[in-house]
Structures are given as C-alpha cells and as structure tokens.
Write a structure and sequence with these properties.
seven-stranded mixed sheet, Arc Repressor Mutant, subunit A, three-stranded antiparallel sheet, alpha+beta
Length: 294
C-alpha cells in the first residue's frame, strides 16, 4: 500500500473535501480524487460517499480512517526522529577497543565527553580480542598497533603516535643507579612484555639504532602491570608515553636514557562508513581526535 495514498485519503477526510485537501497539500484537486479512487480500487471497497453536494465516510471508511491516520502519525514521528538525530548528536554509539587503550587513552576523557554531548550514550566494549566491527555492529573501533593496519573498507583516522620510553621508579634508581648508555641495561633487572624477550631495540635522537641486551626478572603482557611493577621498584621497563606520562608527571616513574626510545605505537580510529554516519558517531570521533590525539 502506498503511504502517499493514505496521506491523500486522510487529508481529504480531515479537511472535508478533495478541494480543501488539495489546497493543503499543494496539488491539484484531480490528483487527490484520483489517488483516493485508486486506493479504493486496490482495497476493493468504497471508503467515501461523494457526490457534487456531499462528502461522507462509509462505515468501513471510518474504521479505515482511524488506522490510516495512525499510520501517517507514526510515519511522521519516524521522520522526526531521524531529522532530530541528524541535527544533534544523540543516541547510542558502540565503541570497541583494547584494555590498555580504554584505560590510558579513553578513560581520562570520558567525563568531558559526557559533558559535551549529554544526549550521546557511549557503549564501550573493552576486549583484547580482534573484533570485526562490521559483523558485530560497532560504530567505532580504536586500535593501537606497531605495524600499519591492513587495507580495508574501513575509514581510518590516526588518533596518536606514542614513543616507548625506558622508565624505573625513583626508589629503584636510588638503590641501583641509572644506566648511562644502552649497554648498561644488561646489568639491570628488566621487566619485559614476553618471557622470551632478551633485547630492546633502541633508537637514538639522531636516528641510530642499538640492540640492548636484557636480564629479565619478570614478564607481563599488560601495560598496567608493567607500570605497577616498575613503580614498585622491581626493575626497568619500557612503556608508551600514553601509559607512563602521567606516572612520570606524578613522580612515580623516571624516564631513563632520555636520548633513546624503544619503538613507537600508533592509535587509530576506524569507522565502517565515511558517508551516512550519524552526528553522534562523528561527534565521538572528533571529540577523541581533539582531546586524546597528538
């Protein structure tokens, strides 16, 4: 059934004539009369008694009018919802990211996001497994990676790039001293990300590389654990600035070998489509680019 035909029928009944309905809708009277007649033909029932002098609903027409008017109202409400969503960021935005990215990159800014966009409900899914955001119905994914992401149909926007710094606690340095060059790391206990890790590849400020031998005493594949272990004085570790910068600012950690870095990690925002995004999705992406991006 054509919704436009219901519109012509409802407006004709509400205005009491085809002529009045035509004036309201801005179409010729013959259009309204023809479309209502076609509607009756498809239904196989007379809805309106009409002569040159009278215009009235049949019994069936009255019942049909109640439901037709309800359908028109629901359609208008549906359109209003879409236009409202397109005019102002609102509704639920589903975002998936890893545990470290959620803890250290997103969490410090969530209160500001809620204040800026109070009608947006951010549904944050935190997991370290790979998520297919299209198949699983997510609006946004934020991924941290050391190698370029593979080409895909997803739209990618770089959020930040963070260098890995060598860090230790002030207490550790007071007891063991600080390395003065990469070769000195071999004589210090190292907190590594993987049990098999035996070297850190370091890059100097002038672009040179050096592989530093390690003496691992602990391994953990979670940055928060590495940070806590280093802050407790267990040894030296490497952490991205997104993780260690607040602890350095608070005096819990000290950067070592400041002329050297131990790699870098890129954080990228991915969305399924460039076009047709709701303002709520664009608002969340732009917010994190502005607040968490570097």
């Amino acid at each position: 059934m054509n919704l436009n035909d219901l519109q012509y029928f409802v407006r004709a009944v509400e205005n009491g004539s085809f002529a009045a309905a035509a004036r309201q809708l801005g179409v010729p009277k013959s259009t309204v009369s023809k479309r209502v007649g076609e509607l009756e033909g498809r239904l196989g029932a007379r809805l309106i008694h009409r002569t040159s002098r009278s215009f009235s609903l049949t019994d069936l027409g009255r019942d049909f009018f109640d439901h037709a008017r309800a359908s028109i109202i629901e359609a208008e409400n549906a359109e209003t919802i879409v236009r409202t969503r397109l005019a102002e960021p609102s509704g639920t935005v589903r975002l998936t990211t890893s545990v470290p990215t959620a803890q250290f990159t997103l969490a410090p800014h969530l209160d500001a996001l809620a204040e800026r966009h109070p009608k947006v409900l951010l549904s944050l899914h935190v997991t370290d497994r790979f998520v297919d955001i299209v198949q699983e119905g997510f609006d946004i994914a934020i991924r941290s990676h050391q190698q370029p992401l593979p080409d895909s149909a997803l739209v990618q926007r770089r959020l930040a790039v963070h260098d890995f710094h060598l860090v230790a606690s002030p207490g550790y340095i007071a007891c063991h001293g600080a390395p003065e060059r990469p070769a000195d790391l071999a004589s210090h206990p190292a907190i590594v990300a993987h049990a098999a890790e035996r070297t850190w590849r370091l890059q100097s400020a002038d672009g040179g590389f050096e592989d530093a031998a390690l003496r691992p005493v602990m391994a953990a594949d979670e940055p928060f654990v590495l940070l806590k272990a280093a802050a407790a004085g267990i040894g030296i570790t490497v952490l991205p600035t997104s993780v260690c910068a607040p602890a350095i600012a608070d005096g819990l950690l000290v950067r070592l070998l400041p002329d050297w870095t131990a790699g870098r990690i890129t954080t990228t925002i991915l969305v399924p489509h460039r076009r047709g995004q709701l303002p709520s999705v664009r608002a969340v992406v732009d917010f994190f680019i502005g607040r968490a991006g570097t």
